[in-house]
Design goal:
Blueprint lengths: L2 E5 L9 H5 L4 E4 L2 E4 L3 E2 L5 H7 L5 E3 L1
Antiparallel strand pairs: 1-4, 1-5, 2-3
């Protein structure tokens, strides 16, 4: 099963918590978080990054 990772750029405050928690899947560009890959086969630390986002800007489906 493929999981889609989306970072809502309007909500993101650029705190960097996601990239610190899951650097293989999130990176900071222009002061905002971005998913390194839009889709992943297996979730590793992505759910922890989503849970740690203070503004709930990350969604995984």
């Amino acid at each position: 099963m493929t999981h889609k990772i989306v970072v809502d750029q309007n909500k993101c405050i650029g705190c960097g918590a996601c990239s610190a928690t899951c650097p293989g899947s999130f990176e900071m560009k222009d002061g905002k978080a971005h998913a390194v890959k839009a889709e992943v086969e297996k979730l590793t630390c992505e759910k922890d990054a989503m849970a740690g986002c203070p503004v709930n800007a990350i969604s995984i489906s």
